[in-house]
Predict the 3D structure of the following.
Amino acid sequence: MADVEMANPIESDILSLSERRRSSRLTGKTKPIYTDIIPQNDQITPSRKRGRPTKKASPPKKEKSPKKEKSPKKEKMVKPKEKKKSVRPKKTSPTKKKPKLDASFRLPILRGMISEYEDNLNENGVVKSAKTRVIEAIRAFNSHYLRSVQEEQRRVQDIEDRRAKKGEKAKGKKKEEKEEGEEEAEEKRPSKRPDLKAISKMLENGTVVNHIKRIGHVPGIEVGDKYFSRGEMVVVGLHNHWLNGIDFMSKDYEQVYSEYKFPLAVCVVLSGQYEDDLDLLHTVTYTGQGGHNLLGNKEQFADQKLERGNLALTNNYECKVPIRLVRGHKSEVSYTGKEYTYSGLYMVTKYWIERGVRNFIVYKYKLERLDGQKEITSAEVKFVREGVPKSTADVKGLVCEDISGGLENLPVPATNVVDDEPGPPTGFEYINKLRIPSGLKMPKTVAGCNCVGDCSQSRDCPCAKLNGSDFPYVRLGDTRLMEAKSIVFECGDGCKCSSCCINRTSQQGLRFHLEVFKTANKGWAVKSWDTIPAGAPVCEYTGILRRTDEVDSNHVGNNYIFDIDCVQTIKGLDGREKRPGDVSFLENTGDSDAGPEYCIDAGSVGNVARFINHSCQPNLFVQCVLSSHRDFKLAKVVLFAADTIPPLQELTYDYGYALDSVVGPDGKVVELACHCGAAECRKRLY
């Protein structure tokens, strides 16, 4: 086949007029009007039929005797003197010959466009940014995924418990041996695909975003964005199939893109599953789908056919329509063992048929990357993390090898490549635990569980019941919090379980290599050398525990004060999102008008958390944790990963200031500009 001349790389020149018109409807600030496409009622029928639904049944019955139809219709037309009825019978007969124009064919996609726009609105009617919606969707997916993993682990544990109770009783008895064999097979049964369960849950809840397939880039997704499962790509609309490598539009989309041939491909995943693939970064030879061993040995066992995804890519070539390309590769830091990177838009410039490595017919497609996009850094499917230090010897601008002085599990180096400041941050003492003043009385330690070893093996653990009969954490490679909760109840000093118990996750100290580094306009900041999975604990906020009234009067100008405001989180006050979790058994949760009674002062003493900056779109969230006592006013403050955070990305959380809430000694409102740089930055910290 001859090569196709490359079109102008600018996206607006690639998309057709109808695509741009559709795009403007979906991205406008006001609700789009679809009266030129969708009728007011629920059926695609001539407009003159809308006003008289009760008389729709009479014309079809009289079609059998056309001579008798004319006289009554003429009489009806004369009495009401409506011109609409004279036109009506002429238009009904041809429209009946087009069944694909009915509501069942057209409305699902067009209605989806409207509902997709309406989903962009928050509770105040303000349009959310596309990036925010994508972030929210991935966080919801991770939460459902982790809960599904916990359910599967519990199922396997139940089987093991039943088999342990039987012990040696089943030996020598055929019937019991059979039952035991069935249970063993059930125990070894693979997981029920927690990713698919998470997708199904989000489809039920309507929290999937960008669910209407589109040509070109997807709103809220940028070139270089990474995903850690196919499921994540599905729920954000990047690639809408959890298994197939080619995602395409069916003929249903003719209603929106009438000038194209269908099926039409929108996205392909290149992950080395086909032995005939060739990836040269800007040019890719992509093997079509079909005839492939799904067990993953990459071997072809049958001829491919020009259908489904293969036909779709052929139509992309003929219609000169770009496709999205996602590269997948093995990853030790991903909970699925794979990592996917969005590589941008490519054009199908050539396709042909040949005999593959196994001598079966395969379809080949030459994909060329469009110019003018963000550059990608690897010429292979396997990506290598660049610039991530392996030790302090690899760090540029090192000013201190460990600001913790050996108090943490891992060293916390400090670096500065911004200015000539010679040393690390000064003026504070590093501590890794909360310091309690001698004059402040703490609540008594409550009695805990009597579990032996890990509490996750006991369904009767009282600490689990405090969290709603389930532990808030799940083991997936490492321990992770399934979702942000009003309060997390951990095992404490009154419990008999081991120090490695899953329900002591926030008490284990640093698990990731953190670095304190100097910024140009935000002072010191914190980043990680490791990938931090969503739900993983990053660090506790330590300092001196104080009363807020004491701080307000004696510590003016201290910017390291953290209010322990669990009540605001429990009740969703001051703009906070209300979190799940029943805490009605706690005392004094109804007293919220007085504000936080205690706070953590990290001005003179603290840990790495004091250097974590604010962001209006953070990647960490604050979690209140109780372990040894039940006074929520004195809860520990722990920072958890809200997203899967790649190496060297700055760690941030929302400081939670309300505008105009800070008042100076002169009684005037103090304003502080925000420099977080987020897409939805509020421009002011307070």
Q: What stands out?
A: The longest helix spans residues 130-166. Residues 145 and 198 are 5 Å apart (CA to CA). The chain has a mean pLDDT of 78. The two ends are 63 Å apart (CA to CA).
